[in-house]
């Protein structure tokens, strides 16, 4: 009986802590937009330098947010291979199991751009970080690819989810070709990052309040760089893009099987 009561109290606390975490995330984004970014914009520097400051600010704020969720007992986490990240001209491709994973990735990468859904540009809680960190809209696919390629060629780093949306638990991966096209056009350093979340939570089909019976454990395994030579030399280029997309899909499918029992 005492064990059941303790479990219910623990669940109730984590539900409250999850709500508090997301409330803090929204308020934090609004405060950054109203108070922090206007001050940063007054500092001297060109567009690239200002975007860099914005990305560092977002990275640090996300680091604080992940720390908050950890301290409140909502989640635990583990990182393997962090030293392989934070390199100029690096394209980080990752699977997308949970809503929190993009926040987790950015919290560990001090300066990185990413692709953002067009509708989020009108979200008052997200607009400030999106604009000031120079994130790229997916509203126009051709323009999106061109901007991503230009950013990587200029020495910037990027985070892309080749699926384009969160994974559906138990369903096969279905990768889009955008990440492959960007990588091959930019001739970028491509580094895969495998993310696992145990137990599954904050998926595409779950609301924030549908929390698991215990705190979730998020793991990040950074793989070795993927050589592009065998895909870059294929003609026509569309075939190389298609084959590289399939390679990514197969890679992450294998990694999911390898790490599916990870967690605490």
From TrEMBL:
<dbReference type="Pfam" id="PF01553">
    <property type="entry name" value="Acyltransferase"/>
</dbReference>
<dbReference type="GO" id="GO:0006654">
    <property type="term" value="P:phosphatidic acid biosynthetic process"/>
</dbReference>
<dbReference type="GO" id="GO:0003841">
    <property type="term" value="F:1-acylglycerol-3-phosphate O-acyltransferase activity"/>
</dbReference>
<comment type="pathway">
    <text>Lipid metabolism.</text>
</comment>
<dbReference type="InterPro" id="IPR002123">
    <property type="entry name" value="Plipid/glycerol_acylTrfase"/>
</dbReference>
<keyword id="KW-0472">Membrane</keyword>
<feature type="transmembrane region" description="Helical">
    <location>
        <begin position="12"/>
        <end position="40"/>
    </location>
</feature>
<feature type="transmembrane region" description="Helical">
    <location>
        <begin position="60"/>
        <end position="80"/>
    </location>
</feature>
<protein>
    <submittedName>
        <fullName>Phospholipid/glycerol acyltransferase</fullName>
    </submittedName>
</protein>
<keyword id="KW-0808">Transferase</keyword>
<feature type="domain" description="Phospholipid/glycerol acyltransferase">
    <location>
        <begin position="90"/>
        <end position="198"/>
    </location>
</feature>
<keyword id="KW-1133">Transmembrane helix</keyword>
<keyword id="KW-0012">Acyltransferase</keyword>
<keyword id="KW-0812">Transmembrane</keyword>
């Amino acid at each position: 009986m005492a064990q059941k009561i303790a479990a219910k109290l623990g669940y109730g606390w984590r539900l409250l802590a999850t709500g508090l975490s997301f409330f803090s995330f929204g308020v934090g984004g609004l405060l950054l937009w109203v108070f922090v970014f206007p001050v940063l914009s007054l500092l001297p520097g060109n567009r690239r330098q200002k975007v860099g400051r914005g990305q560092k600010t977002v990275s640090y704020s996300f680091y604080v947010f992940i720390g908050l969720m950890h301290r409140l007992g909502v989640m635990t986490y583990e990182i393997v291979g962090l030293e392989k990240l934070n390199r100029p001209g690096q394209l980080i491709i990752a699977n997308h199991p949970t809503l929190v994973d993009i926040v987790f990735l950015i919290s560990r990468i001090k300066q990185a751009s990413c692709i953002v859904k067009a509708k989020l540009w009108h979200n008052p809680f997200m607009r400030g970080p999106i604009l000031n960190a120079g994130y790229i809209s997916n509203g126009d696919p051709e323009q999106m690819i061109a901007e991503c390629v230009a950013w990587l060629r200029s020495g910037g780093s990027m985070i892309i989810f080749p699926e384009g949306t969160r994974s559906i638990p138990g369903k096969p991966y279905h990768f889009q070709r955008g990440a492959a096209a960007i990588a091959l056009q930019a001739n970028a350093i491509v580094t895969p990052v495998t993310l696992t979340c145990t137990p599954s939570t904050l998926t595409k089909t779950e609301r924030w309040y549908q929390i698991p019976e215990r705190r979730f454990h998020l793991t990040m395994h950074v793989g070795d760089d993927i050589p592009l030579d065998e895909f870059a030399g294929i003609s026509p280029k569309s075939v190389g893009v298609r084959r590289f997309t399939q390679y990514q899909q197969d890679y992450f499918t294998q990694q999911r099987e390898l790490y599916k029992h990870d967690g605490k």
